[in-house]
Design goal:
This protein is mainly α and 144 residues long. The chain folds into two domains: 2-81, no CATH class; 89-144, no CATH class. It has four helices and three strands; from the N terminus they run H-E-H-E-H-E-H. The structure holds flavin-adenine dinucleotide (FAD).
């Protein structure tokens, strides 16, 4: 729901809705946006209209608190580009704990985020490495 709203608010075509940070905290739509590396671009909106109230409130409170602790954190040079609302894969492909192989489909080694075994770059990389080792142990070691 949040992503659909953000997509529409950006004007479609995957242009991201964005807002300067101080403007976000003050609930004000930014008159202009700083440069951003995100392609296909950004469009100024009041992100409060896209985010659920409880998310907006917590971010607003959090940014203010950080701004007090860390000088230069809360500025209008920073911008929020959003939204990224997804968490890791909600499904898990079953695999044998020891061999890493799928329980029914032989020679299939589910791994990484999509299979439900990682939640970020490093954990996905480590799981991929472990899975590659498992393939070698099960199917290739005798041939090396
Ligand atoms: C916007 C965004 C920001 C993120 N920021 C962070 C961050 O700051 N820090 C962090 O730790 N993690 C972050 N992540 C999560 C991180 O990117 C993933 O957890 C990680 O990349 C998962 O790695 P993976 O190898 O499991 O899957 P992927 O990197 O998704 O690799 C899967 C690969 O399989 C390929 N593929 C799919 N289907 C087929 C097919 N049929 N045949 C052949 N190839 C196929 C795809 O093209 C892809 O290259 C972010 C994710 C997103 C989306």
């Amino acid at each position: 729901m949040v992503e659909q709203k953000a997509y529409t608010a950006g004007g479609g075509k995957f242009v991201a809705p964005a807002q300067r940070m101080s403007d976000f905290v003050n609930g004000k739509t930014s008159a202009s946006l700083p440069a951003c590396s995100y392609l296909p671009g950004t469009h100024s909106i009041n992100l409060q209209e896209v985010l659920p109230g409880f998310v907006f409130k917590r971010l607003q409170t959090g940014f203010k608190a950080f701004g007090q602790k860390m000088r230069g954190y809360l500025t209008n040079e920073a911008q929020l580009v959003g939204v990224e609302s997804r968490t890791s894969s909600p499904v898990k492909i079953p695999r044998d704990k020891e061999t890493g192989e799928h329980l029914q489909v032989k020679r299939l080694f589910p791994c990484g985020e999509g299979a439900g075994y990682a939640g970020g770059i490093v954990s996905a990389a480590m799981d991929g490495e472990r899975s590659a080792e498992a393939v070698v142990i099960k199917y290739l070691k005798s041939k090396i």
